[in-house]
Amino acid sequence: MIPGISRCRVLSSLVYFAICSIRFCRLCGHGYLFFLFSKPFDVSNYRRFQLMRFSIEEINNSSSLLPGVTLGYNIFDHCSDTQNIPGIFSILSGKDPIDPWATRHGNVTKVTAVVGAYTSSMTRTVAPLFMPSHIPLISYGASSSIFSQKLNYPSFLRTVHPNKDVVDVIVHMLQHFQWQWVAFLHIDNDYGNDGRNVFMKMIQDKDICLAYTKKLDENTNYTTILKQIQIQNIQVIIVFATEQVAENLIESAIEMNVTNKTWIAVDSWSLNKKIPKLSGIRNIGTVIGVAEPDVTIPGFNKFIRALEIENQPGEFCNQFCNCSDLNRSEIVRAENSFNFPVYAAVHAIAHALHNTLQCGDKKCHKNSTSPHMVLSELKRSNFSLLNHTIEFDRNGDPRFGTFNIIFWNSSGEAEVVGVHKFQPSSHFSVNESKIQWHNSTVPSSVCSSECQPGFRKSLVGIHKCCFKCVICPSSTYINSSEDQYTCLSCDETEWSPEASTACNKRVVEFVPFEDAFAVVIMVGTVCLVGLCLLTSVLFALNYNTPVVRSAGGPMCFLILGCLCLSSISVFFYFSIPTVASCLLRFFPFLLFFSVCLACFVVRSFQIVCIFKIAAKYPSLQCWWMKYHGQWLIITLAFVVQATMLIFGYSFSPPAPFSDREWEQSQIILSCGIDFKANTASVILLLVLCCLCFTFSYMGKDLPKNYNEAKSITFCLLLIAMTWVIFVTQFILYQGKYIHTFNALAVVSSLYSFLLWYFLPKCYIIVFQPQRNTTQYFQGLIQSYTKTVSQ
Fold it and tell me: Residue 734: pLDDT band by 50, 70, 90 thresholds?
């Protein structure tokens, strides 16, 4: 195909190489590929063209690969998508033109295999023409993922890695340097659009965000793009484009004085020789990239130096080129990316022919073959070439090769600083010390800085890389390796302070019997019981004396007995709570202390009644004495309290309870009590206290020896103070020793009655017997009567 000058709008390196025949073929002049375009001549593409010629000559000169067989070829330039079809038809038809509407008679094509095209868009244009006949099409530059779909491209193979491999290296690079906030600029064609789609899929489950993406073409306004990147504070820019587009972008960045950015170049332009030499290139930041390894092909430079380059424009091998300004050194120094894929593609076809023609050391045993036989052997390729094992996977993609990580140093050279290997497993490594960063350290590109340990991420906007850090509250933790956005709750047996990354085991706390405070309180309780027994004995021995009779007579023994029974509760405030211990912690005290209070209510009422009410209401005293009112009241209080306690405990009995609220690091074992179910019992206690206080206060001015009212009043005040202090302590502190305080309050309440009501009477009986006589008490009564009458 000879493209006209007016039709050649863009510079292309697409080279079709068709094997025309096996043994006897027409060689196309010198095989040179010439260009005459409106844009400058591309030396790197010309180098690939000469490498393809070199590969054919090397194979034809080999005595072992295809002995006795000479490969013929036809090479032409893909000038544009609209002008390549006639050339393809020419390849498929031989000398005769193809009539698409004519009836096909037999196999009209002599083509065995095709090498090309260079770009994905060009390949996608011509590939469908070869697929129906299963003519092998091996591309050395088309990396779009679409060609891995064997249903649409059954005879397509390639010696260049697909976009997914290039993107995989870029993603590894981003992860290695912890770059999360990136821009992806790509050329608006099959190659660029596929690269963007693959990149977006690959970063879905990674901490990388595509902050900005834009298609690039000849009408792109680079100023707008670069301004937007500056506004979004993006420091890393991936440029997935061809050499010309990348050059336009970099030139615009230099003109706009875009500085301190990190540019990631893909293999299509990372080894470009012109861009690193641009004036001001050092100001834009650091350029690193992905590149095909520089594989030295033995004999190729010698082949180039032996070339005879025409000094005049002319047509050679169906191409037109003015090569008068081209010299051999320039070709040798030209950018050499994709050279090994070209070399490997030609040799893959030669090895496939070697197998289909059943070639030995000296000759081939078959004289002909067909494209589908060559395709079958190509898919099974497995041979060594320059220390590479050439193989293809089920999709026709290469299983060989690596990628270099390159850095554009201050000299404008692409310096290798790392490597990414695919076989036998993916491995990425880079020597950071070789990279001269624009700010002397690895740059950062994030939307939000990473949260400190113990903080969760709360998304801001649509990007997962943009977030605010929220501290995890107490009793929660965050496992950033599994979920960075959720604070997980600790188990009930665990705890954690704020900003925790793990939970700690709670310490189970309770007051054991061996605790010092518990021992003191239990000893005090035993002493209480002992004193009550001694008091009972003393009162029994002096039962008929005025002091005992004025203290209540037989009622004293009931009070002392109830004090002893109430003290049972104290022993169940310690050790590990059980259902039984929780029941006995409250029931005895509430029941028998109510009886005590009822006794003192009755006793206070009797004292007031004798001295104050009897004279005014004699009938009331008669009724009281006749029906034993004191015992009725005490029995009624006992029955009512017992009924309410049994009823409340039946519906909501006290039970062991683990308190995890008071202290995070502890589990405090206690007894849970339903205050609603026990409200009536507590109200009865309060009513008895109020009545007792009222009656005792009314008798504060009675005769001294009959003035139990003062003692009762003082006892009630002590009890009230004790429980006010306990309730205040309970509100302020609910640790394990609150149960110790509760037991202490119970013991204090019991001691109040014993010490301030019974002890003074014991003192009189033992040490002041003269005050324990009938005459003494009668004298006090007469004195009080005279005082009242006056």
Answer: confident
